Amino acid sequence: MQKDILTIICGVVMGTLSRYWMMRRDFRQYPSYPHATVTHLALGFVAATLGAVAIPAIAAKEYTAVTFLTLAATQFRDVRNMEREMLTALDQSKLVSRGADFIEGIARTFEARNYLVVFVSLTTSLFTFIFSPLLGILAGVFALLLVRRFMRGYLIRDVAKVRAAKVHFKGPNLFVEDIHIMNLGLPEIKKIYEERGRGVILEPLDDNGREILANVGQRQAIAHDAAMLLGIHRDVDTAEFTPLVRRKADTGRVGMVIVPIEPDIECLVAAVNNVPVLESAFVSPLQSRIGRIAAD
Questions:
Q1: Are residues 101 and 239 in the same domain?
Q2: Is residue 205 scored above 90 in pLDDT?
Q3: Which range of residues forms the domain containing residue 277?
Q4: What is the pLDDT, as a whole number, of residue 112?
Q5: For residue 287, what are the contacts with CB-CB under 8 A and spacing of at least 6?
Q6: How many CB atoms neighbour CB 152 within 10 A?
Q7: Number of structural domains the chain divides into
Q8: Is residue 296 predicted with pLDDT exceeding 70?
Q9: How many CA atoms lie within 13 A of 115 on its CB side?
Q10: Band (238; pLDDT cuts 50, 70, 90)
Q11: 226 and 126 in one domain?
Q12: How are beta strands 244-247 and 160-165 bridged, if at all?
């Protein structure tokens, strides 16, 4: 009995700590306020408990007790739905929205991290039960390092070359180099773009990058992150200053124009480089034979 309790305690502690470790806090600030953080830590504790009690239940031949793990799938799917609904509602009040694709990616991430907590907790409890608490903790740490590998994703800099580009007008038409962005007729708006507008060009490294940049949700995520980091010269009634990302259909190159509060072009390039590639946008046509032949 004491061994079972020790196994469960080690699994729960390591699983909960892993959820705290996975809870990244960056400029996006989500989860931000203490209430959101507590919510996710509590869900991580529940996930860790589910993983920790599985091994003692199997050892006690209480095989039916393990079926409660199936409840985890339903619970974590509800977490995904909760995050999606909340972020969609919050997106309505942002000057530059995340977009549905970005929100879905965040929701999937929060669901998946609970499964990773179950994995860490299960690994820790297994090694604790068979060997010792010390080996169980070491196995949990190894599982954490393995989890970190699964959490690593691609960034825009991995699929495209980002560089500064000239913003200019041809009559009322706004261009970033040779990529047409939009039509602006008011002289005062054109003056602000000429004085404060900044542009970048994203050149895909290969056909995979070309298709990733073609995704509208991915381009919206780029505009959102750039506006979050550098600020945006607009308010709710000045939609003409919304950052826009447009694609050159002939080449697959993408141009973005933004009127930032902080007009540092090097920081803008760095911000775009570090935008994550969304799961919904990630495609690999070069993995197929037809895609490789077409790219030759």
A1: no
A2: yes
A3: 157-295
A4: 86
A5: none
A6: 7
A7: 2
A8: no
A9: 13
A10: confident
A11: no
A12: unpaired
Nearest residue to 285 via CA among 274, 271, 295 = 295
The amino acid at 294: A
Q: HSE, CB side, 13 Å, CA atoms: give it for residue 137.
A: 7
Tell which of 124, 152, 180 closes a domain.
152
| DSSP labels, 216-268 | HHHHHHHHHHHHHHH--S--TT-GGGS-EEEE-TTT--EEEEE--SS--HHHH
Predicted confidence at residue 147, as pLDDT, reads: 83
* pLDDT tens track for 209-228: 999 999 999 999 999 999 99
Residue whose pair of structure tokens reads 């070309």 in the numeric block: 210
State pTM to two decimals.
Answer: 0.88
From 121, 152, 183, give the residue that closes a domain. 152
DSSP string, the chain: -HHHHHHHHHHHHHHHHHHHHH---STT--S-SHHHHHHHHHHHHHHHHHHHTHHHHHHTT-GGGGGGHHHHHHHHHHHHHHHHHHHHHHHTT-SS---HHHHHHHHHHHHHHHHHHHHHHHHHHHHHHHT-HHHHHHHHHHHHHHHHHHH---BGGGTEEEEEE-EEEETTEEEETTEEEEE---HHHHHHHHHH-EEEEEEESSHHHHHHHH-HHHHHHHHHHHHHHH--S--TT-GGGS-EEEE-TTT--EEEEE--SS--HHHHHHHHHTPBPPTTT---GGGSHHHHHHH-
How far apart CA 119 and CA 285 sit, in angstroms, is 32
Q: Which two tokens stand for residue 207?
A: 């056909």
pLDDT digits (tens, 9 = 90+) for 107-153: 888 888 888 999 999 999 999 999 998 999 999 999 988 887 777 78
User: Any idea which residue has 């050149």 for tokens?
Assistant: 203
Residues 264, 226 within the same domain: yes
At 235, phi and psi to the nearest 5? Answer: -135, -175
Beta strand pairing call for 167-170 and 160-165: unpaired
